[in-house]
Amino acid sequence: MAVATHGTASNYLQRAPSPSGLADVIDLILDKGLVIDAYVRIAVIGIELITIDARIVIASVDTYLRFAEAVNRLDLTQTEAAGLAELRGDDGDGKAKGMVEGVKDAFSRDDEKEREPAKKD
Amino acid sequence: MTVVYGIVPAETPLDGAPAGIGGAPVSRVVSGGLAALVSPVEGAELHATRRDLLSHSAVLEHAVAAGPVLPLRFGIVLRDEDAVAAELLEPRHDELTALLEQFERLVELRVKAFYVEEAVLREIVRSDPAIARLNEATRGASEAAAHPHRVRLGEAVARALEAQRESDAGAIFARLRPLAEDAVVEDGETSLAFTASFLVDRGRVEAFDEAMDELAREHEGRMTFKYLGPLPPHSFVMFPGES
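The joint structure predicted for all components is written out below.
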């Protein structure tokens, strides 16, 4: 079984205890959370600028051409097997690290005892 | 003016709380077993600057590490600390207390999955003979001659990608949903295979981690994941009767 090796498996973004980027924070606090009717929600300035959504309009000729170009560019001689595992020379004893690493710090309320990194080896 | 970040049980310690908006120290307004996390702000405008958005978030992240917290939306400001008690904590006492109880052990875990575009496009070309043929026909062909075929190819790819996205998102959701008390799936951009928040018991976060590990392994090379939490229940908390 392909096991993620620390530092190379790019899709193993470990669970972060807090949003690291502005995009994550905007997702969470600008239009979510409790709102109270008695509140004065004073003018929040700058939101329009930062929430402009660069959403791709999928049904457009430009998008189609972009996809067509991307597909045309693919190197289809590359085999499935030559994926990440091979490229990094994974010899099978990599530890399942990644997102479970560092979990101990994530919160400390009542179960830090059990929160060891889940090493599967 | 006083900005409110969130509501916690009055006994929640505030030790080591990060600075709030504008670098102001965070303090508590306590009433009836509840505490509002607040800090002073000046002026009648709150700028949604990077630093202030991150500060708001940091105050809440710090609180959720110590126990339950009901997050308020960014930018909620009352006249002063007395108003926080008189206009928020007192009139909303029963609802807030019930919500704190409801969310006592629940945190939000947020999952985003992004396609590795090249990998998923390769899958699509391999699995769809019509797309593969169009691809062969348009590769290296002159711009003008191939244009209509390229549009058809792109349209077919876009449609296949959307179908793939639905199928992948459905599978990821089906894998994670049983571990959560509640879930909200969001529409994302096309490069985003999946965006959702899950409301998870603190005792099941580890099981969720394992499921995420499995998903990341299954989709290695074709998807990357962003996995955040435990967060305050931003996506789930609301007063009864509101939506």
